Amino acid sequence: MCLFALQGLTVASWLARLPAVRDALGLSPSELGVVLLVGAVGALVTVTAAGVVVARFGGRAAMTVAAGSAAVSFVLLGLGSALGSLPLLTAGVFLNGVSAALGTVPMNVESAAVERRMGRTVLPQFHAAFSIGAVLGSLLGAVTAHLGVSLFSQFVTTAAVAVACRLAVIPHVILDTLPARELAARGERTRLEQVRREVVRREQARVEGGPDVAGEPFVATGRRRGSRTALGAWRESRTLLIGLVIMAAALSEGSANNWLALAVVDGFAQPQSVGAVVFGLFVAAMTTVRLLGTRLIDRYGRVSVLRTSGLVALVGLLLFGFAPTLALAGVGVVGWGMGAALAVPIGIAAASDDPLRAAGRVSVVSAFASVASIAAPPLLGIAAESLGTRRALVLIAVAMIVSVSLSRRVALVGVGTRRGVVAPAGPPVGPLAARVLSDSTRPIPLGEAGNGDILVGTDRSAG
Predict the structure, then answer these.
(1) DSSP helix/strand/coil, 218
(2) 208 in the same domain as 144
(3) pLDDT value at position 265?
(4) How many domains does the chain divide into?
(5) Under a CB-based contact definition with an 8 Å cutoff, are residues 259 and 317 in contact?
(6) Which of 79, 84, 257, 67 minimizes the C-alpha distance to 154?
(7) Which residues have C-beta within 8 Å of that of residue 453, sequence separation ≥ 6?
(8) Which of 176, 209, 231, 305 gives the lowest tally of CB atoms within 10 Å of its CB?
(9) What is the pTM (predicted TM-score) of this model?
(10) What range defines the domain where residue 151 resides?
């Protein structure tokens, strides 16, 4: 969680100083937009290859490189602002996008691995830590601006503190993003024992009247057939559809970050402080649900929660877009924030069901989010010219509808092995066992299942 919070803090701390950066270089709004677009392009280019990097060299190596490049990017940002150099500033923005993308993939893969080991949903809380860090970063930027701290001093200090903290934390992360060959070698020795223990534990709980695991649909699955590279995730229909879900979520959250405060100011003729307060409501609602909503996923499953979240966000957005009063629009903003909270964590968890393929899949779905961050600002800006900012935001309702329609794709996929371990008679094991069994295996159709296949549970809300 420290890495997530630190990522949010560092990103927001420099974005909060954008007005000062703009003034230092004398940039017009369109010129500043182009500079920021360079960073988004850097993130997109990097995130498409990040899965390969993590699979080949491991998550620790990727995180370490990301920490170092982030520090260099902040130094370039400081130098560019202090010297009035647009090339240096642009280089810093580009490298900042690269470092953020390279660090995000292993961070998400590691947090999904923590969730698997704990046996309950916790991934949204990591994303809540990012939101909290972003709030603190915004406050840091506001305080330094108020105190007259120079951009160079702030950015260089941020770089030094951030890289020191990251390098201290990285060695203590779990090992799910070891290089693929090393992970496979370690995991093969213990995987069958994990399977056996989990199956026995579930059977004992059923016999002794423990937690009810009946009623979950199940599928038979088989072992991975051959080694696939991380780039193979781009050919998986389920991964691509999960990417669309995350794109819709990123579009929803990103549009609020970029345009919500302005929509309040323009749409209701309010001062900037009121716009900031309304945006704060959105962030607070989203962070609260990320912290407290994990039990909903454990109880009702990913599909039901994602579907309900999408509908709540849709209603909240439409209420904000068409409300006749600011108070009613504020209620809509709260609903929008609550609905937007869990979609990205659910999508990341769905892409990470198989640890050995998680890095490639997370990089693919992250690329979809990057596309949304690149396309949304200019497209909404064009729409706002004719519709107004508040009405233009309503257009992202289309993406929310797409997300709801694809919600079944995030269901937990049952996986197993053909190594001679057979599930005992009785109800199939539940989602936790499916996560344990997911190591190094992949689903196969029921028709291909053999007598030695394990029958494991999938998400109870899938069907």
Answers:
(1) strand
(2) no
(3) 84
(4) 2
(5) no
(6) 79
(7) 220, 221, 222, 416, 417, 418
(8) 209
(9) 0.68
(10) 1-178
